[in-house]
Specification:
Blueprint: H1 2-18, H2 32-57, H3 65-93, H4 99-105, H5 115-145, H6 151-177, H7 180-183, H8 198-204, E1 241-247, H9 261-269, E2 273-275, E3 278-279, H10 285-294, H11 301-307, H12 312-319, E4 323-328, H13 357-373, E5 381-387, H14 389-392, H15 420-447, E6 454-460, E7 465-466, E8 474-475, H16 482-485, E9 489-492, E10 508-509, H17 513-520, E11 547-550, E12 555-558, E13 562-566, E14 572-576, H18 588-599
Parallel strand pairs: 1-5, 1-6, 3-10, 4-5
Antiparallel strand pairs: 2-9, 6-9, 7-8, 11-12, 12-13, 13-14
Helix pairs in contact: 1-2, 1-3, 1-5, 2-6, 3-5, 9-15, 13-15
């Protein structure tokens, strides 16, 4: 047992040495505290992994020594080889090996391996096996010659256990206070899931000081965003008012004269452009709003949060001296938009007062009206109105019921056999209520005389499924079908929008909003590729046949007919558009292009 445990400890040291390569990627730079934390994190992380492996390998000590040693040498040499190859993958893509990457590599569509590559891999396997076998052979001799004291093993174990607990506790504190030098380490270490807990930290921080971030220059970011410094409005052209109206969980089929009549009529009366095939960048709020404000895939969320990188769209508005009003019903701290998109906004309105979603939405509308009426009209304005009632299926008790029968929502009792009509009616009623509130917004724009000079984006952060695919899915964050990702998308005002008409039936995405506005309304002269992976909606979209979507722990490459889904473990599945598994081979060239977008803004050597 001691010999096996000693062998495991030696391999922890070897893996930790190999892991240094993760931190040598081009553009990586660490402060002394980040570097010190990396040491504790790597040692503690590999200790936890190898401790599990030690337990699994205990039965091998019961078989013949030569066979046992050979099995151990094979297992651990393969693990070290996989770790080394993962460092190569990480240097190329800035993410770690997963089943999806392996499928793409071995599909034959993307990568062709030369004979020399196979020879080198074979040599690597032999050398690694030889080293591991030599280590276990030397340990055999050592344990056979004399009784080995346990002191060294105990000290090593206590040190590694301390590394494990220290790294998780430090990360919990760093995450709470948004300290990027510590937080960014997570993206470098494979399978590393450090501990976070706002509840525990809240015990020690009664005053909520986590909202006051550590002010430190972001010198250690691994993100190259933008690719080049933005050239913003060099001719000092006039910029319009801009408004985002977003309904949480808004389904594409509930933008209609029946369910959202005020918005529908407003769009028709003001020659709005309605896009018929528009998708969010995710099936959850975090990635849907992230894509809307950054113009890049939601898969960057974790890295941008750890590096505390604000939206270029917001910082450009600030440079152009915009009045900025952020009005959200739910808290902007969960997800942490106060640490990402709105990081540079001082005195940020965190949320409406506590209460039901419908009452918070009402307060949101009233707060915006007060702000808008008293704004500095010598400057252009940006408004973000983010409603929550559809997400909560909520409306006031005294609000007239239009859609009947209305059922109560209880996620504990939902099943594939649940009748969706009463629940869907409750949902439609909540959309109808927010549409009722929005009439006050539309009226103010007209009465104030600012409508003609205001660009309005009306959309949802993601959609909301009512078991549309008959697979037992309700709500969102479950799959990437239309029912959870296709949203209304309407643009009204501020410019001749007819040039967009060519794209109303094309694949469009939340990624397209920022580049369109930056180019045509904020007069950013850079190429779009400097700051976005989206498309300009004023130019015909000719070559897009896939979209990249994500949520908290997975991502998907969506085409018209299929969904290539990769879960949090990196295991991929290939579905049709209704989330039924299909026995086909994906187009891995498309997957490769999506992965290129996922790594595009990671720092690379110039």
């Amino acid at each position: 047992m001691k010999k096996l445990y000693s062998f495991v400890l030696v391999n922890i040291f070897i893996s930790s040495i190999i892991a240094i390569r993760y931190f040598w990627v081009p553009g990586a730079s660490f402060s002394w505290d980040g570097g010190l934390f990396s040491l504790f994190a790597v040692l503690g992380h590999f200790f936890s992994i190898y401790l599990l492996l030690f337990i699994l390998c205990i039965p091998l000590i019961c078989i013949k020594r030569v066979l046992s040693n050979s099995c151990l040498a094979i297992i651990f040499s393969l693990l070290q080889i996989v770790l080394y190859i993962d460092t190569i993958v990480f240097q190329q893509y800035r993410f770690h090996i997963n089943e999806s990457v392996l499928s793409m590599v071995f599909s034959g569509q993307v990568v062709d391996f030369s004979t020399i590559t196979y020879v080198l891999v074979f040599i690597l396997i032999l050398v690694s096996f030889g080293i591991e076998y030599l280590i276990i052979y030397l340990l055999d001799k050592k344990f056979n010659q004399r009784n080995v004291r346990s002191k060294t093993l105990v000290i090593s174990t206590l040190f590694l256990l301390s590394c494990f607990f220290i790294s998780h506790l430090v990360h919990m504190v760093a995450f709470y206070y948004g300290y990027s030098s510590i937080m960014i380490v997570k993206e470098y270490i494979p399978l590393y899931r450090p501990f976070t807990s706002k509840k525990i930290m809240g015990i020690f921080d009664k005053s909520g000081q986590h909202k006051t971030f550590l002010e430190k220059d972001n010198l250690h970011a691994t993100i190259h965003y933008p690719k080049n410094e933005l050239l913003v409005n060099p001719s000092n052209k006039t910029t319009p008012n801009i408004m985002f109206i977003v309904l949480d969980s808004w389904r594409f089929d509930t933008f209609s004269q029946q369910i959202s009549p005020n918005t529908y009529n407003f769009v028709q009366q003001n020659n709005g452009i309605i896009f018929n095939n528009h998708y969010s960048t995710g099936n959850a709020t975090r990635t849907g709003i992230f894509g809307l404000f950054y113009g890049i895939p939601g898969t960057y969320w974790d890295a941008f949060l750890r590096n505390r990188i604000p939206s270029l769209f917001i910082t450009t508005l600030q440079k152009e001296n915009y009045n900025i009003g952020i009005f959200t019903s739910a808290k902007v701290t969960a997800p942490e938009f106060d640490r990402t998109a709105f990081l540079t906004i001082k005195n940020l309105r965190i949320s409406s007062r506590d209460g039901k979603a419908s009452s918070r939405d009402k307060q949101l509308t009233e707060d915006w009206l007060n702000w808008y009426k008293t704004r500095d009209q010598s400057k252009p304005s940006f408004s973000f109105l983010f409603y929550d009632a559809p997400h909560a299926y909520d409306f006031p008790n005294n609000f007239d019921i239009k859609f009947q029968p209305v059922g109560e929502l209880n996620y504990m009792t939902l099943s594939n056999d649940t009748d969706p009509e009463p629940i869907f009616n409750r949902y439609k009623q909540s959309v109808y209520y927010d549409d009722f509130l929005l009439q006050k917004v539309y009226d103010e724009l007209k009465q104030s005389g600012s409508l003609d000079n205001t660009l309005i984006i009306i959309t949802g952060d993601h959609s909301q499924e009512m078991n549309d695919n008959k697979l037992g899915f309700w709500g969102h964050n479950g799959n990437y079908t239309d029912a959870q990702t296709k949203v209304p998308f309407i643009i009204v005002g501020a410019k001749d929008l007819q040039h967009m008409s060519d794209n109303i039936n094309k694949f469009t995405s939340h990624e397209d909003v920022v580049p369109t506005i930056m180019r045509h309304y904020l007069h950013v002269e850079n190429d779009i590729s400097d700051y976005s992976t989206g498309y300009d909606l004023f130019s015909p979209i000719l070559d897009r046949d896939w979209l990249l979507m994500s949520n908290y722990s997975s991502y998907a490459v969506r085409t018209e007919d299929n969904i290539y889904f990769v879960n949090r473990l990196g295991i991929s599945h290939y579905y049709d558009s209704h989330n039924n598994q299909v026995e086909q081979t994906p187009n891995y060239k498309t997957i490769q292009m999506a992965m290129d977008n996922m790594r595009y803004f990671f720092q690379t050597k110039k």
